[in-house]
């Protein structure tokens, strides 16, 4: 390596680490003008593409780097991670397995491989890889945070707590770790984190950091029965976020109206779909019992849990060919009418094979797949779709109190009470529409009935899914499958009705909600 290229390479690495992507890009292009076979230039260009969410371009650039420098563990680990991010889980697993067998893997590479498996939903494998990263380097907060997340998902809450505490010890202002720690519960007057969380909330300039800490404070104050303080922090954190978004509930209203109009006017062409009976979709508003239903079904010996897959919506978006910045909108719904639905159905089933295929059926528990019911039944006419229906006020407050994936447009409605309420009404209308249109494939579960009379309701649910009844379906606390949702702690316990009526704790603040519902 000549001195000029070496200098440019160091400058590019430094700029990339500091988020100076334009400078890094210029340095890397200068390197390639002098040496078009310089593998790491392609790899670092891939990292720039990844930072801008262009995962497909990142994959192509990493592949070019791998051609020039074969069997580089760092390159292959990032390739596996990016295939996972692109929902190509089968290829991601194949590359990750190849990478693990290479000699002299670094701590960073172990961590990257752990992230890849975690993205796929294989959290048991992630845990071992994060532990290997930590064994090589105990100075990185991110390694402990990633370990904590996977331990939480597999039900090791004590281990998760220790990992999150270590994260905070190494990086005291790591706001996501504070929020994750609070989500594990165990909060009391004698043992809470309110003092340090309040300090962080007051010091935070970054809007998303404020969001994480505001939610953590709300959770801790709620555990202490101080609901006014909890609500105050929720409102402050969410209002700051709302002001940064270009979101209008009217866009969602247009999208919901377009869905109903499209599938009312265009009857399903079931002979054009892919012939598979494997998929069970559990849908609905988030925080309405979708994880509970998924645990009941996946406790059946013939059912595997595939987790919350984004695959179907992203395949619809890709095949529709639209370039709008939302996964689903009016343009995408209209363009999707010309999709090859058999190809869509097969592509979806194939995309799940890193986890599925070992049992007769699997559960995809992405709640907002409720938007895709018409498309699902065109692509997979034998699919069964279970939709949760919960008390309106419990649904609205559970969504407002929850911090969903930050900067994921699906959940923009949840940053304000009014838009959460209006979104609930849109959902309710759509669910009733799907039930009327497709009663053979779409089933509405009443959450309150389910938790108050679990065996009766679970038997109906299992029968609808074309399964024979197994008493073990009710033993959800014995279900060892990972849970990567907000209900990760709750569903490790037996079925309970204790969450019915939680909205009443915030009754004093819900006048605007009552007004819209009326």
- The total count of helices amounts to 25
The CATH class of the domain at 249-517 is identified as: Alpha Beta
State the CATH superfamily name of the domain at 249-517. Answer: P-loop containing nucleotide triphosphate hydrolases
* Residue runs with pLDDT of under 50 for 5 or more positions: none
At CATH level 3, the topology of the domain at 249-517 is Rossmann fold
Inertia-based shape: globular
How does CATH name the architecture of the domain at 249-517? 3-Layer(aba) Sandwich
What does the main sheet amount to?
Answer: 5 strands, parallel
Give the SSE string. Answer: HHHHHHHHHHHHHHHEHEHHHEHEHHEHHH
State the end-to-end CA separation: 72 Å
Radius of gyration: 24 Å
- Tell me what portion of residues adopts beta-strand conformation: under 5%
Got a strand count? 5
Class from helix and strand fractions: mainly alpha
Helical proportion?
A: 55-70%
Strand line-up in the sheet with most strands: 2-3-1-4-5
Mean pLDDT: 94
Brief sketch in words of this structure:
With 518 residues, the chain is mostly helical.
Written description of the protein model:
The protein is mostly helical and 518 residues long. Among the domains are: 172-244, no CATH class; 249-517, 3-Layer(aba) Sandwich (Rossmann fold), CATH 3.40.50.300. The protein has 25 helices and five strands. The chain has helices at residues 3-17, 21-34, 39-51, 55-68, 73-85, 89-100, 107-120, 123-136, 141-153, 157-170, 175-182, 194-203, 207-223, 227-242, 249-265, 290-298, 311-320, 330-335, 341-351, 373-379, 392-401, 417-437, 447-452, 454-464, 511-517; strands at residues 279-283, 303-305, 361-364, 384-389, 442-446. A five-stranded parallel sheet has the order 2-3-1-4-5, with helices on both faces. The longest helix has 21 residues, at 417-437. It starts with a helix and ends with a helix.
